[in-house]
Amino acid sequence: MSEPLSIDVRDVTVAYPNGNVALHDATFHLAAGTICALVGVNGSGKSTLFKAVMGFVKPVRGSVSLGGLSLREAQRRNLVAYVPQAEEVDWTFPVSVWDVVMMGRYGYMNFLRIPRAEDRRVAEESLARVGMIEFRDRQIGELSGGQKKRVFLARALAQRARVILLDEPFTGVDVKTEEAIVELLRELRSAGHLMLVSTHNLGSVPEFCDHVVLINRTVLAYGPTDEIFTEENLARTFGGVLRHFRFDESTIQKHDGRAVTVLTDDERPLVFGKGGHLEYSRRQEHEKVVEERAEEPDDK
Amino acid sequence: MIERLLEPFQFAFMVEAMAAGAFVATVCAVLSCYLVLKGWSLMGDAISHAVLPGIVIAYALGAPLALGAFSSGLLCAVATGYIKAHTRVKEDTVMGVVFTGLFAFGLVLFTRIKSDLHLDHILFGNILGIERGDLIEIFAVGGVTLAIVLALRRDLLLFCFDPGHARSIGLRTNLLYYLLLALLAATIVASLKAVGIILVIAMLVTPGCVGFLLADRFGTMLAISTGSAVFSALTGVYVSFFVNGSTAACIVLAQTLLFIAALLFAPKRGLLRSRRTDGQPTPVG
Fold it and tell me: CATH number, domain at A77?
């Protein structure tokens, strides 16, 4: 296995042939062992930044490097994997689950792409890890939304990449699969991988991303979620397009155990506490936050 | 009766036509699988029309016709790509303008330049009048094309399926893009003498479509597509002997019939099938 890898994006400016500058002077740095969310509205340059990190678009200025390697070199060494958005994939394509996972091994094969025993072993192991081994002979269109996502995750695993880019990984995925994917990403983080997740699902960000990059035509802010994911920063990022529901004068009483249940359709809501700090649905992993708040005077 | 049925095989030109037809059909069928999956069916249409001015200019210059055809076909594809990238006009629109423009240019040139070329041979092929030299050219150009496609079949498939992933593992997707275009142009050049630049369009779409309707795996799709194309070529040449019709048209007609059969009776996706079972059950979980 190769060394943990960091991402360095420096002063990246991307302009399209029609002269449209989609992104300017974007700079951020991420260390290995991180799950980072890329957050911004449609048209904010989020997908452009994503494409620049993938090497699909060439910046007119600035650079993207991974652990000191050029992007091209890092890709040649199979260090970067990409999990596409569901809408980008042609699900009628005549390939099986197994074929797709095997594509993750192409970089290790000779130019005829004939798999060796090792490639088959890794592909099998990767499929098993996402719980899809019994679907290996299915055509990819015959899978549910969550299963489809898991197949492409298995491909990224089979590739043995250190940096994994996920484009809207939770769109069209049921809650159970979402949790399974988050769990897998956490495991990968512990193993020193770096995950960059493009998402518009705000609520899920503090739940599993330890870092965020906020984008609106440029990188507005980046860093640990607790520090960066503030109401003020989000207002700058979204420029007033977010819906607000405040509970200022609400009926929540102390006898409710200070707990409320919020139901939404498919997206997780983002909840801020009274002082503008993030609220988490689970206390585990956030002991530090709980401790800090315990020292504050209790609200009456 | 039997004698009458075996009659076509007694003529060398018939046997040669069958060999050339089956070979051209194979090359086209293999490529058609990629075109259908990539959504490039119109690209075959465009390049084949754009080949005409190249042929006429090559003739006027005394250069090999195949070379002229290849260059002008490729020029059309590259020009389309360039215009699309630098304007707001959509690709299919650009293609429509560029290829019809080049085709018209070719027609004007053809009438201005005195030659012993026959326009309908260029347009519809002359498979029964194929000469030894043409046959060698067909097998050489087609053979090289086929060898390259088969050697790189997994990379090309990945390029069609998920160019993002192809890039992320370090494949040069730009190179693959132009390679696929060049292979397409070469295939059209190889098929020129046999089926002509109009009917080759069908040869580059229909077999792949038949394979796509019937198969769930790329290998199977490739096999079905090639099988149906070769079968159509042999049947088409054979039948044309009796009906005294355009041979290339008979080949294309046979392919079209196979396509209709696949469309109606495909076990999983056929129109008749889906009416009976009301679609496939949707998986859950």
Answer: 3.40.50.300
Chain A partners of B285 at a C-beta cutoff of 8 Å?
144, 146-147, 174
0.95 surpassed by pTM: no
Q: Which ipTM was obtained for this model?
A: 0.88
pLDDT at A147 over 80: yes
Query: CB–CB of A106 and B169 under 8 A?
Result: yes
Indicate the pLDDT class of residue A1, thresholds 50, 70 and 90: very low
Specify whether A113 is located in the same domain as A161. Answer: no
Q: How many whole angstroms separate alpha carbon B227 and alpha carbon B238? A: 17
Q: Is the same domain home to A210 and A167? A: yes
Interface test with B, best of A5, A50, A112 (most B CBs within 10 A): A112
- Site from B37, B153, B165 to mutate, A interface, most A CB atoms within 10 angstroms: B165
Chain A residue with minimum CA distance to B215: A94
What sign results for the dihedral spanned by CA atoms B80, B158, B259, B23? positive
Phi (first) and psi of residue A168, to 5 degrees: 45, 60
Query: CATH for B2-275, among 3.20.170.30, 1.10.3470.10, 3.40.50.2000, 3.40.630.10?
Result: 1.10.3470.10
- A178 neighbors A204 (Cβ within 8 angstroms): yes
Q: What is the pLDDT of residue B274?
A: 58
Q: Poorest-confidence range of A70-84, A106-120, B262-276?
A: B262-276
Could you list the residue range(s) of the whole structural domain that residue A110 is in? 95-152
CA triple A42-A47-A50, angle to 5 deg: 150
Mean pLDDT of A204-208: 86
Q: Which two tokens stand for residue B110?
A: 């053809």
Q: Which of B167, B282, B285 sits opposite A56 (nearest CB)?
A: B167
